[in-house]
Amino acid sequence: MNEHVRPRRIELLIGTEWRRGNGGAPLRVTSPATGETIAEVEQGTIADVDAAVAKAQAVLPVLARMTAFERAALCHKVADIIASRREVFARDISLEQGKVYHSEALGEVDTAILMYRDSAECGTRLQGQTYQSVDPTRRLMTIRQPRGVYGVITPWNFPLTIPSEYIGAGLATGNAMVWKPSEWTPLTSRNLMQVFLDAGVPPGTLNLLLGAPAEVGAGVASHPGIVAIGLTGSTRTGLAVARLAAGKPMLLELGGNGPTIVFEDCDLERAAEVVGGGAFANAGQICNSTERILVQRSVHDRFVEKLVEAAGKVRLGSPFDASTTMGPLTNAPTAAKVDSHLADARAKGAQIHSGGNRAKGLPTDLYFEPTIISGVTSEMLLNREETFGPVAPVLMFEDEDDAIRLAETCPLGLHGSIWTSGIGRALRMSERLRCGTVHVNETSAYWQLHIPTGGFTGTGSGIGRLGGMATLEEMTQLKTISLNVLGA
């Protein structure tokens, strides 16, 4: 596959108009896979946010007149067109984000297709309720309605599926949306906007804003015409947006660094293989990646050995090479964070068993070796922060109480994982872990698109639940209607 491309000019889309931004010179974006310049991205300003909000507000009556089944048909049309462009989407995802084309990028496209179909079907099944009344002249009911103009802010690690979680649900429920994607993945953003145009979605339903997060992202969060916010990103970004959007309904999926807890009674060989996969999938750039591995003392050394074996099976290289199983990190800030977390761990006495460095002899310096490191302690950055790289840090614990103590030394709680053959222990630990989702005998990175997922309250991992019907419920508001039947 020839991955070389000419730089593409990426413009904002407001209504049906592709337009240049008002923010000065375009931003040049390079491929983490090849090092080439792949895009020149127009930069928006607050004025562009205003224009996008106006278009979104104008289309709300059109969307309100549509039935849920008409909006569902549009979701299916979007899915059909993405399916017809599957390879184009996947190639651009690999080029700008770095995930492996055959095993990861194509899978991301397939998942996005299912998301629009799932949103379509959920949208036709959104339900209200009727209530008994103490007054015989009254009939009481609830209905669900769209919130209005939704601001959607999304990251670069899954540039098609994460936006589609919000956008599919938004379209199905009749919201209009102003979308600020990551500046690192403009090709996928442009491709998805073209799909919405070609599908005949009412103009203004989805508007694309590009530009500096500090101006355009902040403008979306704080704009008075945007009534609700959906965001997936780091805890730091989420907190900043939450402050700017104070008082608005918010659906936030934020940082994760939940524990994977390995007990001595589990299938150690399978656990090491699956845990390693959770650490190295998408080069570790998943919010629920396996980033903290707590192993019981009695099996610690054997488990580390098996993790090293798992790391040895990883084939690092170009995402377009059929033999590759792990591609590069997406950008320089992410790679620098991985460097700093490993340097901190080394300085504090941790031991690297394999990897630990950027790979040599590849097109960019963003290719990072799959890394196994033990002797990690609670005060190290690998334990306390989300690393977002192909690093499997191992901590040691004694018993269930000690495992919980260690698990709670990190303030984040998105997904966790427990490995044990005991059903009682599995349930006890699942109930005690401060994580929004807990997997038993499975990687923390396990996920199905239709099940609710989100952060545990108070951990800094988010607000609300994404996934299937839960997303549509979050993106709608409940209205109560009281009808006087005698006055009808």
Descriptive keywords:
488 residues, alpha/beta, Aldehyde Dehydrogenase, Chain A, domain 1, Aldehyde Dehydrogenase, Chain A, domain 2, seven-stranded mixed β-sheet, six-stranded mixed β-sheet, 15 helices, 39% helix, globular
Low-confidence stretches: none
Q: What kind of sheet is the major sheet?
A: 7 strands, mixed
Strand content: 15-25%
Strand order of the largest sheet: 15-16-17-14-13-18-19
CATH fold topology of the largest domain? Aldehyde Dehydrogenase, Chain A, domain 1
| Termini separation | 68 Å
Whole-angstrom Rg: 23 Å
Count all strands and give the number.
21
Average pLDDT, rounded to a whole number, is 97
Q: Identify the overall geometry.
A: globular
Q: What's the CATH C level of the largest domain? A: Alpha Beta
CATH architecture of the largest domain: 3-Layer(aba) Sandwich
Please tell me the total number of domains.
2
* Fraction in helix: 25-40%
What is the number of helical segments per DSSP (H or I, 4+ residues)?
Answer: 15
SS-derived structural category: alpha/beta
CATH superfamily of the largest domain: Aldehyde Dehydrogenase, Chain A, domain 1
Give an account of the 3D structure:
- The protein has helices at residues 46-65, 68-84, 86-97, 101-123, 161-173, 186-198, 213-222, 235-244, 268-280, 300-312, 332-347, 381-384, 400-407, 423-432, 469-474; strands at residues 8-10, 12-14, 17-19, 27-30, 37-41, 130-131, 138-146, 149-153, 176-180, 206-208, 228-232, 250-253, 259-262, 292-296, 351-354, 371-374, 391-397, 415-419, 437-440, 462-463, 476-484.
- Helices cover 39% and strands 19% of the residues.
- The chain has two domains: 8-254 and 465-478, 3-Layer(aba) Sandwich (Aldehyde Dehydrogenase, Chain A, domain 1); 259-451, Aldehyde Dehydrogenase, Chain A, domain 2.
- The model has no long low-confidence stretch (mean pLDDT 97).
